[in-house]
Write a structure and sequence with these properties.
mainly alpha, ATP_synth_F0_csu, ATP_synth_csu_bac/chlpt, transmembrane
Amino acid sequence: MSGNIATVGYGLAAIGPAIGVGIVVGKTIEGVARQPELAGRLQVLMWIGIAFTEALAFIAIATPFIF
């Protein structure tokens, strides 16, 4: 039974990073539409934001193994 609960728990934990990545990408597109000359800089910042957001998913994967 604990395996099934862990699977559901990870599924719920993956929703947060997915929403976060969607917001980061959406705001980057909005920023490029407003300031096209900053597209390169905004894209770099977008990838950094995605990396930090996805780190939450990796922490969620590792947490059951730690505890």
